[in-house]
Amino acid sequence: MNTVAWDLQLLNLFAALLLLLSFAMLSQRRIVSLVNLLALQGLMLWAATLLLAWRTHQGHLYMSAALTFGLKVVLLPWLLHRMIRRLKVYWETEPVINPAATMLVGVLIVIFSFGLAQPIAELASTTTRSALGIAVSVILLAFLMMITRRKALSQVVGFLSMENGLFFGAMSATYGMPMVVELGVALDVLVAMLVLGVFFFQIREQFDSLDLHHLESLRERD
Amino acid sequence: MERTAILTQLLEMGAAVALAPLFLGWVTQCRAWLQNRSAPPVWLPYRAIRKLFHKDAVLAQDASPLFRIAPYVVFGTMVVAAAIIPSMSTLPLNRAADAIALVGLFATARVFMSLAAMDVGTAFGTFGARREMMVGFLAEPALLMVIFVASLISQSTALPVISEALATQALGLYPSLAFTAVAFTLVLLAENARIPVDNPATHLELTMIHEAMLLEYSARHLALMEWAAALKLFNYACIGFALFLPWGLATGAAGPQALALAIPALLAKLAVAGLGIAVIETLSAKLRVFRVPEFLAAAFLFAVLGMLVHQLLGA
Amino acid sequence: MELALLLVIPLAGALLLALTGARPRAPELNVAFSAGALLAAVALAVRVIAEGELLLGREQFFVDPFNVFLITLTAFVGLTTSLFSRSYMRVEVDHGRIGAGRLRLYHSMYQLFMATMLVALTTNNMGLLWVAMEAATLSTVLLVTLYRTPASLEAGWKYFILCGVGIALALFGTILLYFAAEKVLGAEGVTALLWTHLDAVKARLEPTVLELAFVFLLVGYGTKAGLVPLHNWLPDAHAEGPTPISAVLSGLLLNVAIYAVVRCKVLVEGSLQSSIPSQMLMGFGVASVVLASFLLWRQRDIKRLFAYSSIEHMGIITFAFGMGGPVANFAALLHMTVHSLTKSAIFFAVGHAAQKAGSQLMDDIRGLITTSPTIGWGLLAGTLAILGVPPFGVFASEFLILTTAMREQPWATPILLVALGVAFAAIFGRVQPMVFGETSLRRLPHPPALLPVFTHLGVVLLLGLYVPPYLADWYRLAARLVGGH
Amino acid sequence: MPVDLNAPLPACLALIGAWALIGAAGLLRPSSVRFAGRTLFPLGAIVGLGLAAVAAVGLARPAEQVVLAIGLPDLPFHLRRDALASVFLVMLGAAAAGISLFAAGYFRRGEGTPPGLLCFQYHLFLASMGLVLLADDAYAFMVAWESMALASYFLVVSQHRIPEIRRAGFLYFVVAHVGAISLLLCFGVLQGGSWLFTFDAMRAASLAPGAATLAFALALIGFGAKAGLVPLHVWLPEAHPAAPSPVSALMSGVMLKTAVYGTLRVTFDLLGEPHWSWGLVPLAVGLGSAFYGVVFAAVQTDMKRLLAYSSVENLGLAFAGVGLAIVFHGVGMRALAVLATIAAIYHCVNHAFMKSLLFLGTGAVLHATGERNLGRLGGLLRRMPWTAWIVLVGVLAIAGLPPLNGFVSEWLLLQAFLFSSEVPVNFIDMLLPLCAAVVALCAALAGYVMVKFYGVIFLGQPREAALARAHDCGWLERLGMLWLAAGCIALGLFPAQVVAVLGEVAGGLLGEVPPRPAAPWWLLVPLPDREASYGPLAFLLVAAAVIVVTAVVVRAVYHQRVRRSAAWDCGFARLDARMQDTAEGFGQPIRNIFQPFFRIQRELPDPFDAEPRYRVTVGDRIWGYAYVPLGALVRRLADLAAYVQRGRIATYLLYSFLTLLTLLALVLWNGPRS
Q: Quick check: D543 contacting C, CB < 8 Å?
């Protein structure tokens, strides 16, 4: 019965790929490939937005797609790569603490997110309501990635992946946010990246490594 | 107040002051007989007091006015106590103070004597003061319980009312009164420095309590102090008679012939009591100072038993 | 017009100070801009009291008695903090802990931070509220890491990551809110996120979506407000930054976060029959008070001690808003005011004390009253005020909150009182040896600015004994607006 | 301003305001001793006298109320003056007059806080105590109550350079705060559901028995913490010695009594019908505190700690009186309840005068010798005659000796206990008379303590050479002490009049004004139908007459020759001051008899000591059993709580992650709303 329109199928494909990329980032050890996966995720988001804009003929979606492409596919990955080169952490790898357990938890999270998104999806009038579950799981997976990571840079990549999840959620729930809000969020993310850049250099200067176990001196109890 | 009441009041105070040394002499004489020693004359205390009054008073260099005032205050309080206790008849001054006030009066005498003892600042004075206060604070609750039991029976703490109620009570065996009487005798022995607690005759530094406080006194101050001690013993005896041998008291309205009857009754009671005290003293030996708390705890226990028996059995 | 002035002045200040921040007259400029903002805020307040609610800037900005009192408070504390930072920074420059470049960054970020808070308070658009909160976080992160010490770096990093994640969740909450609003208000875009419209139509919004949205918003803005399970960044951030920033963070930013949570609660409570939002708020509140008071016992750094005290007081305010009802809301608003005034006054005194001792460890600060009585008495009076000792206003609001709690949530009262008692013993036990006793502290090169400390404590003392009638009506109006059963 | 005598409340308020103004004036010139000492404190004394006079007038007047503008918007300060408040106001005013007069001469430069600031805190303390007695709603009461604690805290730590004083201040303020917290809970329960926190609403509210019992228990804990009842007494022997003497006199004399006032107010006024079984708790705790306090007082070696423990004893007796009153009230014996309340209030007023006098005495001694330890005092009677003789009056009064006031309140209490055997509840009618024995024991021990206090300080040889230079106190200080001594003597000699006045007060409180017994003015008869009476005036006259007659007769009949020579030294020539009984020595029998009460540490010299020293320190067991474990528990919990903040950012992220998931699960589990 599901002679669903081909563009919806494509949209679901992009959403599925987005989820797959999140899982990949969860288990990726090399930082450089982590950034590339982030760029891929941005690409999927851009494609989904473009497709949705073409399908629903909404002007501001085109603008949002362009913004996503410019920011999430081109600018941020370039900034990260430049930082990796300047911080000379190109070849650094980061052991993921027992990947099997993380994967299992990831699966549980996806199930929980779909359970969570179920009641909302029934009410959503948009065509892509089923993608809401995927958006929530991408957010929570990114959250899990930030928890399990030991390097500052990979934590930031997790943070940006969460942003991608948020935008995808906005896309699937309400065809994006009002333009003034989208611009504000984009500006904030950009400024955040600049601030993080400054942070990386300072941390590198102080601790000559980006490992987070240096940043544990402020505590009540050891 | 009509003149006769004042007259009886003064008469009774005079009688008390006069009879006290005699009572003391009588007790010492009985003790001598019981210990088959040749007894000193009964009026020996009178002669001792008269002799002391004639001597020159010797005071320590830095004895303060308190030291010189104390004998008069102690003697004064004892005379007032005598004025309050109905030895022969109910007196007008009785309304001014009830039994609890009487205990307070004895406490005043004790405090002034202790302060005077500490004034000169010798080891013996302070030593004696400390022990006297210890005996004091242990004896007072027991004495109060004795008075409580008596007042529970007679619904009042005024001594004349108590003695009248006890006198007019139906004759019979009252265990509560018996226990209280035992308690009272123990307190009497402790308070008046008799044998089990303190030996009146000794000047041995380590054991004396009452004598230690008088060590610094001489001549007329010592006389007053000795007289006050005798008067205290007499007062305690009279309280004992008022509580436990209430017969023979001239009630207010009875007039002069009842008074005439009361005097021989009082003398008889004093004789019996003196003999009793002497017997107890010859039979018991002096306790170590730190056994005194148990001695007085026993007194307190008897008083409490008396009260409980009265509450439970109503007797 | 006042609103425009209110927002433009700090922004202009930020830009100008970015260029001239290091010049000798920069602190005075900073004070001037803050004073300008305060004047605009007072004018706005007068206008709101006269005319009631104001919808300005094509409905993007909305000012009602509830947020205008917060705006005036923010502007006032902003001014006094700039006064304090003038003398504080002069001493810091003398001690060589801050160079010219960073001073410029400090002044401009300070004004930017004030601007973002004022925007967050006045905006009607929930999305813009989120953007302003994010901007506030960004501006303070740079301020927290001003000293470039390893500890401040760590504090800044944690502050950034934890609040960033929190705020991201809040964004998703806003998205869900937008989603629920769009179904009712139609999809023509802009009006769906405006609080006034949402408030008007909140009864018809979809309950399940709103509940989920509230969870995300609560966790998001709750992280910014320092509620307990999400509080870990707060002690580090408030202790490592320069003291004026700790004062402004503790005093004002926490209030703005609570303001955002309350705005969402008003919407969610309207549509839901169940009292889950209030229970959540109360749960967070009690947890914050209890855990913070026990954490106070192990502190050795004076600013961390008062940071935990802020968590505890935020817990009390959240608990009060959670209870709802006119008296509790009134008490919560009063508590917000007196807490920010007292806490900033304490941080002013602590700043000078730490500078005198050259370290923030409480064991190094001794005998303040003997060397500089004004700082010593200021710190002691501030501590007594924050501990809720009666003549001061904090007791007045705590009295109202606890007595209301006895009526509605009897289970919470003994827990709160025990926690308050433990906190009292902890804080007073540490501050007393600092203020009294022998001393070895050296004099400050520049005279300490103590006018702000005593003006704040004077106002708090006044609020404790006599709440002026117009202020009382103002709070009652706001309490009714916050609503609740 | 015209003081109209039938509405003295505005006048009282004006005078309390005057106190606050005097305090504020002190701030103008903080460091000048002359300004604060010579003008402000005497002014404070006059205001105190005025307050006592106005309140005395108010005793006969009906209760009156006033609502001030200040306070919370919907709960402004309600103030009410009724007979009970007036009695305590008279006590506050009269005691404050004497103490302020003494303080005028007492404070000198260079001791702790500057005199001006001290004057400010002192008069704020007085003003807040006045307000506590007048407060008529929960908020006003709490503000006044904790301002009282705050002002007294500042006074206690006036010499904050000494660590022990800081520790005492901290302990005092924490216990006071805990008391205030339980009072806040009590008011919360008391309002019963009317949610109006004025005392009138509380009077109107009828509480369920369970709630009323809870309210009473909380009130007892709150007021017990302030009065220093035993488990909560640990701050009292630390704080009172730490404060300057006039302040400890004010705290011991007056502040502790606000707790008795509070208990009476809550039990009889706000709760109305207390159940008789409630009375047993304050009775038992009161007697326990009395016995505990006096036993510890007997073994102290610091004169001010001795007086502090003696305050614990006297407050214990006052609370025992209140407890007895509740028992009698509960079983319907209203006349006896009035008698017991009279005894309690009378004891508070007496203690205010006696204890203030003694603390002022120690103040004079402290200033003269700079010594507080009894081991280094002695023989001051010769150097400080004025102080010694006036303090003797206080010592005799507090030892409970007949002509003076201490005896009267103990006499009334014992009379009340005497009738307790008629309480129609079995077991209780037997236990209560036993309590009379405990009261008697405490009174006797008080005598023991006071003989030790007076004897070791003023009598005997000076134990330190420096004591020779001790000088007597100034005329202002003497005047202050004389006023208090006169108060003791007056209260002692005219009890019938005082009991008549207190009868109306207690009658008004308990709802039954006792019939006036038909007795001559000089005789005190507690209950008309009972044959017990006590006439101190006649008693004193007869005693004086006898003493004068004896003195005259002895001097007239015999000679007055006196010769001075060395004290009797038993042949051992070198009798020096160290051979006197020390403070530890005088306490030795008590230490021996009541061994289990104390935590005794002995420091015995070993044979190889170059300079052998024997030291015994007596500690408080309750500190070890209750407070140290409590502190350890809180510290353990704090260590446990610290696990939350271990520094790793991953764990912090995990906390927020789990919070989010639990909340989402909670929302989901509740199921979709229809």
A: no
